[in-house]
Structures are given as structure tokens and as C-alpha cells.
């Protein structure tokens, strides 16, 4: 079955161009031209990924992303003409999985969509051959197939990227990962983003699994080197 992509973009020429490239690559698409109707469509279900512009009428992309993340872990790629690091960090902090800065190559965009979908399918157990596998560490339990996380028996809601980051750390306890290596593993081989992308996701994950995120015990910062997972706590 073809994957369905929701395009929330008010520039008609751009949304049509992106839809054409996606159709040529075997995807189905639906276009919404304002944030409010885009959020309604995303929450109604039936989509595998959302391409979300930042500057939208009625409800901007930041608001849409925040509201969507409260209900769903559907992959979100934000399309933005904003080049300031603060805006990119804000998008990631609200739960976007990635961002693409305009102008962009449609072919590159399609490749990144495929990468995110493949990772999401693998993490949710929808990929062919996925099995029921658990990773445990102290009070944390991770079900790889169903993408469920429990802490002291209580469910912890993680986005797809947060889940993948947690799994990477738990499988490689005490190993130091540089930001560049984390980026390559979670976003692909090429460095499309900046180190701030990794830092934002680390901060968000700490907020969900650490007793005191400002003084983390699980995800340690190794100054000048990167991050390390402390096992057995």
C-alpha cells in the first residue's frame, strides 16, 4: 500500500511541485493550505508523515506541531524559510523530527521522507520481519516492536526520534557518542542539520526519563566529546 503524505503548505506552486515529486515516487498526497485544517487532517489519521510549513494562515506551523505532538507521534518534517538557529531549535523542541530549509531540492526532500518513514516503520514494528524485542535497564523498559517505553511501570510517551535515541544509548552503555555520530545514526549518513538538532533531542529525552533533567544521571555530558549512557541506575 502506498504511503500517504499530508502536505500543509499555503504556497500553491510549492505544494503542487512537492506533490508531483511524491506522486512520481509512488506516494499518495493530500494538501491543506492553512494550519487549522492541516491539524484536523493530521489528527483524523490515515497519513504516514506530515510535511508542515512554518508560516501558515489561521494557525502557524509551530502551533500545529505542538498540538499534533500532544496526540500523535506521526513523523513531522517542517518546511521553513527561517534560517535562524533559534527557530530551528524551537521546531525541534516542539517535537518535529526534522526540518528542511527553503529553497530545497525536491529530490532531496523525497529521499529524506523515505528515510524517516523507514525508520518509523522499523521502530513501530511495521517493517517486514520486525520482532518483539525488549531492552531493559533498571527502571526503564523498551519494547522495540511496539515502540513502548515504561519507567517504573508507567508509560513514557516518546517521539520516534526520541525513541531511537534512547535505544541507541541503551544498546551502547558507557560508550561516548559525539554529536556528529548521533546525527549520522538517527538522521542518515549526510549531515543535513546542525549539532543543535542533537542537543535539542537530548534535552527533550532527559526531561522524560531523568529525575532531575538539569542534573542528569542517565545521559551524561562528556565535555568536549559528546554524550554517554550510564547503565544500571
Can you walk me through this structure?
With 233 residues, the protein is of the alpha/beta class. Helix content is 41%, strand content 21%. It has 8 helices and 12 strands. Strand 4, helix 4 (85-93) and strand 5 form a beta-alpha-beta unit. The chain is globular and about 55 Å long. The termini are far apart. The model has no long low-confidence stretch (mean pLDDT 85).
Summary tags:
globular, Arc Repressor Mutant, subunit A, 5-stranded parallel beta sheet, 233 residues, 12 strands, Rossmann fold, alpha/beta
From the 3D coordinates, which CATH architecture of the largest domain would you assign?
A: 3-Layer(aba) Sandwich
Summing up helix and strand content along with how strands pair, one would put the structural category as: alpha/beta
Q: How many helices in DSSP terms?
A: 8
Question: What's the main sheet like?
Answer: 5 strands, parallel
Low-confidence stretches: none
Mean pLDDT: 85
CATH class of the largest domain: Alpha Beta
Helix content: 40-55%
3D shape: globular
List the helices and strands and how they pair.
Elements (H helix, E strand, L loop, with lengths): L3 E5 L3 H13 L3 E5 L2 H10 L4 E5 L7 H9 L6 E5 L4 H9 L4 E4 L4 H19 L9 E4 L2 E4 L4 E4 L2 E2 L4 H12 L4 E2 L1 H9 L7 H15 L9 E4 L3 E4 L4
Parallel strand pairs: 1-2, 1-3, 3-4, 4-5
Antiparallel strand pairs: 6-7, 7-8, 8-9, 10-12, 11-12
